[in-house]
Structure formats: C-alpha cells, structure tokens
Design a protein that fits this description.
five-stranded mixed beta barrel, OB fold (Dihydrolipoamide Acetyltransferase, E2P), about 120 residues, mainly beta
C-alpha cells in the first residue's frame, strides 16, 4: 500500500489572541488565526505582499500551553495536519472550513536589536 502523508508546517504571525473553550465533555479547544506571507513582483516591477490567513486548532494540554504563550503578533511555527469540515448554520446554510489541527508549536524569537 502506498504511504500517504497529511502534514502541514507553517511559520507566521498570530492574528489575534487565541480563544480557548472548554467543551461539555471537558476537552479544551483553542482556535486562532495565523498569517503567512510571501512577496512577488507584479508586471510593473512593484513588490506585492500576498498574505494567507490560516485557521488553527489546538486541543487540551497544547491548547492550554498555547493560550498562555501566544499573543496577537507572536511569531509562531507549528506542525499539524490539514482537515476539512462542514456545518449548517441556524438558517440552514452549509459552510465549509479548512483548518490546521496543530500537534506542536513554538514561539519563534525575533531579533529586536542589531548585532554589534
């Protein structure tokens, strides 16, 4: 059988402070957004920044740790898997969401002072 892989590795900036909720079964879930950017030159030679926003989910102990360390603007690197889900809102409209379920993360130190 052919090996299949679902692995996502992202490094970017937290869009807002994460939100942690405790579910009725006691599990904790954290949701946050992460921005990644790349740059390219357009036809006129001008640099354009292209930013993509990712929906990130963390569970239980990882969620608690991230809630205590990640803040809006934090530079975060994470590893996880890509998932898709759907739900129906109260008006009967179907919504489709792509999320990254993170299984590890780290805060990336940024240099605030120039080397001497």
């Amino acid at each position: 059988m052919e090996k299949m892989i679902n692995k996502v590795e992202l490094s970017g900036f937290a869009g807002l402070n994460p939100e942690v909720k405790t579910l009725p079964n006691g599990n904790k879930v954290l949701k946050m957004s992460l921005a990644t950017s790349s740059s390219y030159k357009d036809r006129d030679g001008n640099w354009v920044r292209d930013t993509t926003w990712h929906n990130i989910v963390m569970w239980n102990k990882l969620a608690e740790a991230a809630n205590n360390t990640i803040k809006k603007g934090s530079r975060v690197s994470l590893i996880g898997k890509l998932t898709n889900r759907q739900y129906t809102d109260k008006d009967g409209n179907k919504h489709y969401i792509t999320e990254v379920i993170a299984n590890s993360y780290e805060i990336v130190a940024t240099e605030t002072a120039k080397a001497v």
